[in-house]
Amino acid sequence: MKRLRPLAAAFAAWLVLVPGMAFAIDIKQITTPLGIKAWLVEDKSTPVVALSFSFSGGTATDPAGQAGITELMAGLLTDGAGPMDAQAFRQRQESAAASLGFNASLDRLTGSLRVLSASRDEGFELLRLALTEPRFDPDMLNQRRAQTLASLNQAAQRPGSVASRTLMQTLFAGHPYAADPDGTPQGLAAVTPELLKKRVAELLLRNSLVVAAVGDIGEAELARQIDRSFGVLPTGTPPALPPEWVPPTKPRTVVVERPVPQSTAVMALPGIPRDDPEWYAALVMNHILGGGGQQSRLFNEVREKRGLAYSVSSGLRTYKRAALLVMSTGSANERVAEALKVIRAEMARMRTDGVTEAELNDAKTYLTGALALSLDSSGSIAGLLHSMQIDGLSPDHLTRRASLIAAVKLADVRKVAQRLLRDETLTTVVVGKPVGVTPEP
């Protein structure tokens, strides 16, 4: 069993037991001399500093004709910077015991740094170089481009990837969220070092930065290091948000033929925004429906009782301009229609009958403790603090989270089920050679 570090263990206890705990984790909000705001949890028990940060603008804002450039750029930021080529940059990270990485989501460019506190000067200097002096050497660009193209080709052969991509293309047709974050062969082919530098200038803006830090570092020192790494970035206007999404108003079923013995199915409904007052009722409902693994209704009805699938689950997804509730499963071509029928029946049962008192209590207990168990490192805690800022939550939200979950009532779950689990908005994608599944345009 993984052993929690002192801070992680304290966080876990705090999240589960608040408000009964006699102590609290101190989340400090700091503002650097250059005006950059950050959240900090100081922890002297482990000689590590973890940073989680992001900038506005993700793959959904890829310029026309350059699909994939943001994801490609994220990978290349650590492939050489300043006077160091890719190999030298990696060696400097290793010698400093630092780990630096970037990724791109639909809405944001994200990054993380983890470094021993004894070598934090070196770690933050590498971060500064990656942000301000990326090299984008042609050989590394070609290597990363080839890797992405190979990944796209492999994804086109995997039924699960095809189902996921087809679902996004169907739900968001005409919207930027429909585009593959990894891009297209044509878009990737158009990317040059000059275009990558232009994309850096568009996205890496000091005034769109969100940052959180955890570890062996004080307020003044963190402010100094943040100003050193991020302070030289320009300010400007971040890329415009994608347009509002118009959810579907009629059911649709898409079948993608593939010569495989088992079909992969994904089903999606319009979900619920993170700041919606019914968020925690939806979280509880989803846990009971399919988010709770082997304890969920879908797992019990689809796999345990009928043996229709090896796995089945549901989950909530939130984006800046959309929210989804997505269910997924895989079943033999001859039985996938029955699996889909059972899932729809469970949606109707949840909508009509709600959940039981025992299910509600079990879900509350799990959800109250699950977040705590996921916080097993300084990096994971920094990631949580960062995501809270992105979601517009206040530092004291962690104190209130357990009571918000505890306040969910049976009627609340039934109400949100009636709101979300509507057959008339259900989009279904099946990849394989499904028997008995009829496409609905």
From TrEMBL:
Transmembrane segments: none annotated. InterPro entries: MPP/UQCRC_Complex (IPR050361), Pept_M16_N (IPR011765), Peptidase_M16_C (IPR007863). Residues 41-178 form the Peptidase M16 N-terminal domain. Residues 191-366 form the Peptidase M16 C-terminal domain. Residues 1-24 form the signal peptide. Keywords: Signal. This is Insulinase family protein. It comes from Reyranella humidisoli.
